[in-house]
Amino acid sequence: MTAPITQDVLTIPRKLPDSGRLNIVGLTRDQLQQALIQAGTPERQARMRVGQIWQWVYHWGVRDFALMTNLAKDYRALLAERFEIALPEVVTRQVSADGTRKYLLRIAGGHEVEAVYIPEENRGTLCVSSQVGCTLTCSFCHTGTQKLVRNLTPAEIVGQVMLARDDLGEWPEPGQPKDETRLVSNVVLMGMGEPLYNFESVRDAMRVVMDNEGLSLSRRRITLSTSGVVPEIARTAEEIGCQLAVSFHATTDDVRDILVPINKRWNIQALLDALRDYPRLSNSERITFEYVMLDGVNDSDEDARRLIRLIRGIPAKINLIPFNEWPGAPYKRSSWERIEAFADIIYKAGYASPIRTPRGEDIMAACGQLKSATERGRKSRAQIAAEAGGEGASA
User: Fold this and answer.
1) Angle between helix 336-348 and 301-311 (nearest 10)
2) Would you please indicate which residues are annotated as catalytic (active-site) residues?
3) For the whole model, what pTM was predicted?
């Protein structure tokens, strides 16, 4: 059984730009090697050339073939003629009072996605998007009030990491002492979209991000968040091997059907059955269960006890997320006292139960708030409220 295919179509008909050159960003090593051979690179040299180009692009952050000085001048000219190093365009950059940075990015076709960088004391986490919009209609999530437009390409996913490094000034400088501090130390696929409905592009992008000779982020530093696309979970373990987070949010099928409608296709039991094998298949330590705290909906003591019973036997931690309200949202955030009582029950049962501090709320950069600015601007608060009350919103 395979996951249903999300149509990769543009809802706004636009002619995509065609420079006649192949963008090498997001190509895996094998794909880049084949592309170089097709462009005339002798096969016996191609693997070496991949290594050289890879280091320039992903270690040094170079965007101009002319600067790749360990390549012959005529070969650099060939590369410039046949290839390009293209990233999404930064439309706006907002900085929250807490230091969170939100980037509105324009991609091919004029569509927009958002990425968020969250600095913390001992790490920096970049939240990247995998789709424009979303299909999942999770009723607490603002992103889903924007319908799915299309999947992102590997270049558009990797490009988010590269643009964040640009903004943070994180690329090393030749000749300078090596700085071991990583400003972008973690990547979470928790932005716009359901990553497992764009599996191949996400997989290839993460292979680029994890490559030791470039961006070099360990698979333990990458977390993919899914709402529960059950058929792709084992595949994620085998082909990506990153950490897994699950948007769980409810302890009964009746409530989860409303909050996370994909539950109607793969219910809680089917999801948990798939999750039990993940740590073994991926060599991961544990699974993170994400649980948004909604006042009077899923935050009772009985919910906490039921959650413990459900996940028994799965190495896990429970991330409790105070609901990040947005205009027209049909829910309210649980009180701090209720969240702490819920966390205490889970903690006493032996599970880590951190309460996620809301970050970037003043710039609509918190969990569940991401949305293309142009889409947000097209709709009034009343329209958003009407949609939320009617068909719901996506995760």
Assistant:
1) 30
2) 114, 367
3) 0.85
